[in-house]
Amino acid sequence: ANQPAETLPLHGLHVLVTAGPTQEPLDPVRYLTNHSTGKMGYAIAEQARDMGADVTLVSGPVTLSAPRGIDTVHVTTAQQMFNAVQEHFTQADLTIMAAAVGDFRPIEQSSEKIKKNGRVNIDLRLTSNPDILAWAGAHKTAGQTLCGFAMETQDLESNAAKKLTSKHCSMLVANNLNTPGAGFAVDTNVVTVLKPGETTDEPIIEHWNKMSKQELAERILTELAALRNTESA
Ligand code: CTP
Ligand code: CA
What we know:
Layout: E1 14-19, E2 24-27, E3 30-32, H1 39-50, E4 54-59, E5 71-74, H2 78-88, E6 94-97, E7 104-106, E8 126-128, H3 132-139, E9 145-152, H4 156-166, E10 171-176, E11 188-189, E12 192-195, E13 204-207, E14 211-212, H5 213-231
Parallel strand pairs: 1-4, 1-6, 4-5, 6-9, 9-10
Antiparallel strand pairs: 2-3, 7-8, 10-12, 11-14, 12-13
Helix pairs in contact: 1-5
Cytidine-5'-triphosphate (CTP) binds next to helix 3 and strand 9.
């Protein structure tokens, strides 16, 4: 446990992690969000710290407490998460985006509480949020390693492969919400890991066994550290 700092596997590296859901306000009392609890992203941030990295965690609203020894930036909306990532991305050697970012937000936010006024149906107009991972993939420079996540409910491999390629990730960690032991609010995960193929356009696909989110965090970071060495070799 008391290993000299300079021998730790991520010593000297800056790691940026996104975690948790976003909240997109509709009016002063309501918002759109999702079931993310932040457990996976927080486990990665804490593990990166324990492996010797200098960690920045950009977190949406969660009930987890800010981890010790980690620079935690609290945000609410996808746009705020995007701003925080843009501010920290250039310094990051490894970036892992585990946040469940709201894809859409209400096109307008009512300054007053929306009243029902006897209506049976109402229409909500939504507009797309910036894709933070895609932005990072488009702006990364040599020496930056980028890891995305993907949550799917069907066609996991083909959907995840598209995300790996279109967002220019070094690695993508995909899970199926319907697999027992995977998904929101549980302490374990079951993932499929995709990396760009070395010679073909077909990605390299690995199926990892069910493990705790802590153990998975360590496996992901070890894999990224190894990728970093091959990418820079
Ligand atoms: N992501 C992001 N910004 C967004 C949406 C997603 O940074 N506005 C990131 C997530 O943090 C995750 C990856 O992109 O690392 C994939 O998220 P996911 O929701 O699975 O995929 P999407 O590209 O949003 O596509 P869809 O939801 O339609 O499947
Ligand atoms: Ca999405």
